[in-house]
Amino acid sequence: MGQGPLDGMRVIEFGGIGPAPFCGMLLSDLGADVVRIDRKGMKAGPGVGGSPFAITERGRRSIAFDLKKPEAVETCLDLISCADALIEGYRPGVMERLGLGPDQALARNPRLVYGRMTGWGQTGPNAKRAGHDINFIAISGALAAIGTNDQPMAPLNLVGDFGGGALYMAFGLLAGIVHARQTGTGQVIDCAMSDGTASLMALFYSYQAAGRWGSGRRENLLDGGAPFYDTYRCADGKWIAVGAIEPQFYAILRERAGLTEPVFDAQMDKARWPDLKARIASAISARNQAEWCDLLEDTDACVTPILDMAEAPLHPHNVARGTFAELEGIIQPAPTPRFSATPGAIQGPPPKAGAHNEMALRDWGIGPSMIEKLRRVGAI
After folding, report:
1. End-to-end Cα distance, the chain
2. For residue range 333-372, what is the model confidence (pLDDT) as tens digits?
3. Which residues does the annotation mark as catalytic?
4. How many CB atoms lie within 10 A of CB 290?
5. CB within 10 Å: which end of the chain, N or C, has fewer?
6. Preceding omega of 337 cis (within 30 degrees of 0)
7. Distances (CA, A) of 273 to 225, 269, 276, 277, 355
8. Domain boundaries of the chain, sorted by first residue
9. CATH, domain range 237-314
10. Which one, of 280, 173, 171, lies nearest residue 231 by Cα?
11. Domain 10-200+350-376 adopts which CATH fold?
C-alpha cells in the first residue's frame, strides 16, 4: 500500500533516463504503485536503479525482463492489463518494435493511459532526431530569453526535461486517468518537451504581444534587466537575490539598504536601469551575505541568500517545512506538494534492476507457474 493521494493507482514505467523517471518519482511520492520494467542484465546506474544516489528512481519496484523473449513481452502485456497508466521515454517506434506499442497495449487494456515522453514529440520533422534539453528549449523561445547580454545560457535541464517534460507528463497522465474513470476509455499522451517548454512561456508571449517584453536578454522585468530583480555579489563573494518588484517592497529595500538618493525614485524608468543597477551593486558589495540577510531577509524587501546545494537543506525555512529529507544517508528533496488529508512519502530507495521480480509480478496477478516459466526461459 502506498502513502498518498494516489494510493491504489498502478503505473508501469519503462526504464529510461531524465524526465520519464522523474515523472515516475513524482507519482510514487504521492502513493502510486509504480513498477519499472528494466532490461535484464543492466548494471546499476541512471535509469536502471541500484545506486542510492539515483534520487529520481526512488520509490518504485523493478522487474528486469529480457524483452527479446516473447514470454517477457506477453507478461508485460499482462501487467499492462492491470495498469492505470504507462510511461515510456523512447524514440518513436521503439515500443512498437518491441510489441508493446499503444495499439497492442490499448487492445489489452482499453482504459489505459499510455504516456509517451520525448523531446520533439511523436510527429513533426524533428520527431526521430536526437536531442537534449538545450535543443528542446531552443526552439520554444525560452533559451533565447535566458542568459547574459552576450550569450544564451542553459538553465540546467530544469526547463525542458523536468518542467516542460516530466511535470506535463504527470499532469497529462492524471487528466487521462480521470477521463478513463469517467468514460472507460483510455488514450495516448504525446508529451513533447519542446511543446511543454513553449507552454511554460505563455506569460512571456503575452508580455511580448503587449509590447512589454523585448527580444534582448537582461533588458526586461524578469530576466535580470531590472535593477530590483537581479542577483548581486556581496563583500564575501557570496550572492543575494533581489526581487523587489512592487513599489511597497522596493521602498523597503531602499530604506533598509540606504538607497536614498532621488535617482532611485524612477523605479520603472528603463533608461535609468543600468545606472541604478551599478549603484545597487556597489551598495551590496559593501557587506557580507550574512549581514544582508540579517538586515533584509525578515522583511518584505524580497531579498534572500543564493544558496548552493550543500547550503539549501540547512536554511531555516527549508528545515521548518521539511523541504528536504534524508534516506539511507542521502539528502534529497522531500515529496511535494503537501496534502492535508493524504500526505505523500518517499516510498522506498532506488531499486536494483530486477529486485522485485517475484514480488511485483505476484502482486500484479502473475501466477507462480508463469513466474517459473519466465525463469526457465531466461526472460527474467
Report:
1. 25
2. 999 999 999 999 999 999 999 999 999 999 999 999 999 9
3. 132, 161
4. 13
5. N
6. yes
7. 7, 7, 5, 6, 58
8. 10-200+350-376, 237-314
9. 3.30.1540.10
10. 280
11. Rossmann fold (3.40.50)
